[in-house]
Amino acid sequence: MTKDHGKSVKNDEQYEELREKGMSKEKAARIANSEKAGKKGGKADKYENRTKEELIEKAKDIGIDNYSKMNKDELINALRNR
């Protein structure tokens, strides 16, 4: 049975799976709380297909610093390596 992590985690099952794989609590929660967290099979939009504005919003949401000074490629790299 999946543990309820309260309001701070939207997808408890995914959060627990990510934690079991060794992800930090912060990163697992961020992924489990993303809008497309429930999508399987690579159905989330690829970063390359998103606008720079969409990437900036995502960077803001997950707390990447200096996102406003980055170009699209730098934003993609920062999001993938966060």
UniProtKB/TrEMBL annotation:
Residues 1-48 are annotated as: Disordered. Residues 52-79 form the Rho termination factor-like N-terminal domain. One of its GO terms (biological process) is DNA-templated transcription termination. Residues 1-29, 36-48 have a biased composition (Basic and acidic residues). Coiled coil: none annotated. It comes from the Bacteria. It holds the Pfam family DUF7218. InterPro entries: DUF7218, Rho-like_N, Rho_N_sf. This is Rho termination factor.
